[in-house]
Amino acid sequence: MKEAIYSWIKCLAIFYILLTMLIHLVPTGKYQRYVRFFMGLLLMVMLITPMLSILEKAKTLPESFSSLYQQEEKKRLTLDMENLQKSLLEKGVEEQLEKNIPEFLKKKGIEVTACKVHIEGELLKACLWTKEVPDGELERGIKDELAANWGIREENCEVLAWENGKQTMGDSSPSGTSAYSNRTSGIQ
Question: Is 178:184 a contact under the CB 8 Å cutoff?
Fold first, then answer.
């Protein structure tokens, strides 16, 4: 026991001499702060190591840390994979609905030019463009069909008109001319 303490004190003395030498070798005071910090961390490890070995934990500490790190890394990777799978599944469902909705509505006699579906959590949102300007009856029919067959709520469905490749009703694009003049900002 005395020999272990003597060896530990000898290691601390050598460490302190090396620390002093290293601090004098560092060219500027700016880097001395970082050297002192790092060496202080090493000194703490050197001071704690004998106490841990007395408690028989010095051998198991790195192994338990490694084990816990691997478990956390496995959980993180599993969560990342689940999120990726969910994202890919949602994208696939969106694409399939964007294909199936216009086909279904065409069978019902409603001509849909384009369809965009977006999944937000549990909600399905759809935006459809028809060849003709949708009147109240047509819009009601589309929204009812979407609610009955795909569970898309009325408030999450938008029906717009599409003419010559341009959106004609409910245009939300920020560019273009305003109704007041030929200015794009709409400011008078």
Answer: yes
Q: How far is it, in rounded angstroms, from Cα 57 to Cα 124?
A: 55
- Residues with Cβ within 8 Å of 23's Cβ and at least 6 positions away in sequence, in order, are 32, 35, 36
Q: Which amino acid is at 102?
A: P
- The helix/strand/coil state of 115 is strand
Q: What 3-state DSSP class applies to 153?
A: coil
Q: What gap in Å lies between CA 133 and CA 32, rounded to an integer?
A: 74
Name every residue whose Cβ is closer than 8 Å to that of residue 147 and which is 6 or more positions away in sequence. Answer: 153, 154, 157
**CA torsion sign, 41 to 43 to 48 to 53?**
positive
pTM value is 0.49
Q: pLDDT (tens digit, 9 = 90+) per residue, 11-23?
A: 888 888 888 888 8
Residues in the chain, overall count: 188
